[in-house]
Amino acid sequence: VKVKIRFGNKYLDAIFSVPEKKPTYGVILTHGAGGDMNFPHLVSLAAYLASHGVLVLRFTCKGLNVAYRTKAFKAVVEYLKLSDDYKLSGVFLAGRSMGSRAAASVIRQSQDDDDDDDGFIQGLVCLSYPLHRPKLQSKLRDEDLLLIRCPVLFVSGSADEMCEKQLLEGVVSKMKAPKKIHWIDKANHGMAVKGRTTDDVMEEINAQVFSWLRENVQLEHV
Questions:
Q1: What is the CATH number of domain 2-151+167-195+208-216?
Q2: Fewest CB within a 10 Å sphere: which of 54, 136, 145, 211?
Q3: Where are the domains of the chain?
Q4: Burial class (CB in 10 A: 0-12, 13-18, 19+), 59
């Protein structure tokens, strides 16, 4: 289902992947610095989750400024929260690369503002979280991660040039939130692995995301 979501004086393009049964939980999903909501990995994940009973709303927001992307993500969260079509008990925020930074920012800000006191946001899924720029490991983008309190799942490639394995493990060990890392062996930032098809890698990612979601919500609903 295609929708337009108001954001300031503009509209964001978004698509709902709707399960057959009435969903209790949803995932809001967005793309990295390049591409849009039709990035194949996002389409694959949305279809997989919807087929397992989770509503997915993915959206496009162009713009390379994280603060701008965060504001857009907030607008989408509000839209879903107030939606009459889908009355959800809670939502997980998910993003790929820069999109996951924006998602982390939304969660930290909503904690700071106490505007999520009803617990609508249930957790965070970071696909290829860009912990640092390539070859610039001294400057970590970890400030939001260290302050988040809800459950967080990281799915990262062990050969990701923007997320060195030991560095992410170090940050995660300092996080107060319940957290889990799933390493995709030998995958780069784009989740490409020599000798494996994209579909094969996506199957692994999709199954991991779904089983983690299921662990973090009341099981009978999903």
A1: 3.40.50.1820
A2: 136
A3: 2-151+167-195+208-216
A4: buried
